[in-house]
Each structure stands twice: as structure tokens, then as C-alpha cells.
Amino acid sequence: MTEIAKGLEGVLFTESKLTFINGSEGILTHLGIPIQEWAENSTFEELSLALLDAKLPSAAELAAFDAELKANRAVPDALLDVIRAMPRGVHPMQALRTAASYLGLLDPQSEDTSEAARRAISVRMIAQFATIIAAINRAQEGQDIVAPRMDLNHAGNFLYMLTGKEPTPEQSRLFDIALVLHADHGMNASTFTAIATASTLSDMYSCVTSAIGALKGPLHGGANEAVMDMLDEVGTPDKAEAYITDKLDHKVKIMGVGHRVYKYFDPRSRVLRDYAEHVANKEGKSNYYQILETIEKIVVDRMGAKGIYPNVDFYSGTVYSDLGIRKEYFTPIFALARISGWCASVIEYTRDNRLLRPDAVYTGAKDAHYVPMKDRQ
Q1: Which of 90, 266, 332, 349 is most solvent-facing, going by the fewest CB within 10 Å?
Q2: How much is the pTM?
């Protein structure tokens, strides 16, 4: 009997220097450095450059990369016209998927699949995804699109373009940490999809558009939005225990809980939990946090022995919500961060490229023959 790895679980198809995950112990590292240290000491810009080059940058390298990102923040007017013309009410991930693809039509370098071109396109997309996502949000709300500023960091500039107001240093830093936590996560579904597309030697925009399509699904990028739906359904902290107990008793899947890889606490969720608590207490928005706290305790008590714990989506939505971001934009923000990991993984894989071509165990009929239409029952 041939053993099938459902969902490709446990299947090794390549090597990578970028990200290591030990799910049983709740460990996540980039370039061997724990994610907690990246979140505490680094920035999204530095981690993005480190992933692209697979090494810690020097101060001069980081300064040059930051300047390059800022120089590429603006997007073509033709793309902004497309964003303005999009139907009202479309899901932001549909809009982002279309915008990313259209961006490729406007890039004269888009068909160049050399490593140098892939890297140059990656830098532009990392910079421009922030502008595109903020523009989609503004256009969908009937507001004027806000042009990027060159004096703000990547996180602060996005929040400014989204709201039209300069964020506080604390808000900017909080969002920066959220981007760091989501920048890369090994061979997840969207990264694998980008690599699968890249393995055909397709262009960088096709790789990223493919990844966006994978991220859009509620079992991947859409989970944090679903967590907020759950919190709204619970309503108030005093109803949380009865709500989650009933769900667990009826074996209903709890969004933001459990992970294919982690059989212990997702280390990213521990970082976000602390910030969610801080923001909730400071802003007087403790309802969501108190509900999550109750749900986490009951889930861990009842499911922890089975390796089921809260993941990064469990607390990320409350952090975004406290920053004034609507839940429909949680998944595009995931893409805003993960664009770095997608691009870095594509560049790394295509250095020693091999076309991905898995197989399936055939379970259909054998020795069948064509039956003319008049003879079919």
C-alpha cells in the first residue's frame, strides 16, 4: 500500500536557510534568530532585507535598502485609476489580487526571471503593497487616496496612508512588530504556492498573485478576520465561557486555535498577546481581550494535551482593530507582511530550481472502454 501524505504533511521538497520551525516546542527562527528577538529589536525593513539576502545586513546596507523602499512607494497612476474603478463592496483580497497582477502589466521588467530582476521587483512590491492596500481601502470607502510620505517608516507610512493621520510612535511601532511577526513562516500554503508557480519559471508577479489567491482562504490568511467575527458573536466577556464551552462540546472548529505545525503555543501569539493586553488596558478596550483571555484558558485546559493552542491569528485581529483597521483588511495586511517571505522564498528556490510535479494515487476505474452515447444508461 502506498502511504499518502494528506495535505503534504511531513513532505520535504527543498532546503531553506530562511526560517526554522519546531512546532512541538513552539520555536520559530529566521536565520537562526528567535522571532521574539526580531520583534523586540528589529524592524520590518531589516527583516525583509535579511530574508531577501539570507543574512543580517550592515548599517549601510539597511540604510540603502530603506532609501530604495521609500523611493519605490508611489504606484503608477494607471493602477490607481483601476483601484478607483473597482466595484464597491469587493473583498479587499480580490482587489489586491487584481492590483498585483495589473502592477505586473505596467512593469517593463516583469518578464525578466533572472535573480537580479526578481530581487529588484521584490523591493518594489514590498514598498508598493502598502500603498496599494491603503489605496484600496480609501477608494472602497469613497475617500481620496493618500500619497505616501518619505519621512515615515514602512509601518507608520501605511497607517498614515490608511487613515490620513500620522500615527503615534507607539502605534507605528506596534504595527511594525505585527509586520515582523507575519513576514515569513516557512513552507505555508501561500509560500508553497508562490514557489510552485516559480518552479515553472513564471514571472514574479504571477508568483505573488498565486500566493495572494492561496492566502485569501479562511484556513490560511482569513482566520484572524474569523476570530473577530467570533468575538462579535460572543458580545461580552461574561458570555465567553458558556460560548466556548458549547462550541467545544459540539466539536465546532474554533478559529485562531490550533495549527498544522505548532503543537504548543505559537511563539508569535505570545508576543501579540502581551501587546494586545497593553493596548486594551491603555485604550480602555478591554472587552475583546477579556473574551480572548477566557477562551484561551478554556481551550488550553481542554485541548492543550492534544497539542491545540492559540495561534498568531488569535490575537492579531484585536491588535489591528485597536489600530483602527477594519477586519476586512486583516488578510491584506497579512499579505503586506508576507510579501517579504514570498519573494525571498521564490528567489532562494529558483537558484536551484526544479519543476514541482507531485503525483496522486489513482483510485478510478481500470480497463474501461468508451460507451457510445446511445448505449449509456
Answers
A1: 90
A2: 0.91
* Residues 222 and 190 sit within 8 Å (Cβ to Cβ): no
Closest CA to 343 of 118, 28, 19: 118
Give CA–CA dist 140/97, Å, rounded. Answer: 15
Q: Whole-angstrom Cα distance, residue 294 to residue 282?
A: 20
3-state secondary structure of 356: coil
For residue range 212-271, what is the model confidence (pLDDT) as tens digits? 999 998 888 877 788 888 988 998 999 999 999 999 998 888 878 877 777 788 889 888
CATH architecture entry for 19-221+327-350: Orthogonal Bundle (1.10)
CB 339 within 8 A of CB 129: yes
* pLDDT of residue 5 exceeding 90: no
Catalytic residue among 313, 322, 352, 367: 313
Residue found under cell 498577546? 273
Mean pLDDT taken over the chain:
92
Distance of CA 267 to the CA centre of its chain: 16
When pLDDT is averaged across residues 56-65 and rounded to a whole number, the result is: 98
Active site residue 30: no
Question: Whole-angstrom Cα distance, residue 223 to residue 112?
Answer: 35
Active site residue 259: yes
Cell numbers given for 36: 521574539
What residue type is 361 in one-letter code? V
Is residue 107 within 8 A of residue 121, CB to CB? The reply is: yes
The arithmetic mean of pLDDT across residues 270-282, rounded, is 80
**151-168 pLDDT, tens digit each:** 999 999 999 999 999 999
Secondary structure of residue 87 in the 3-state scheme: coil
One-letter amino acid for residue 270 of the chain: R
Predicted pLDDT of residue 263: 78
CATH topology of domain 223-322: Cytochrome p450-Terp; domain 2 (1.10.230)
Per the residue annotation, which of 30, 184, 259, 322 is the catalytic one? 259
Count CB atoms within 10 A of the CB of residue 278: 15
Supply the DSSP symbol for 33. E
Residue 327 has pLDDT above 60, yes or no: yes
Q: Domain residue spans in the chain?
A: 19-221+327-350, 223-322
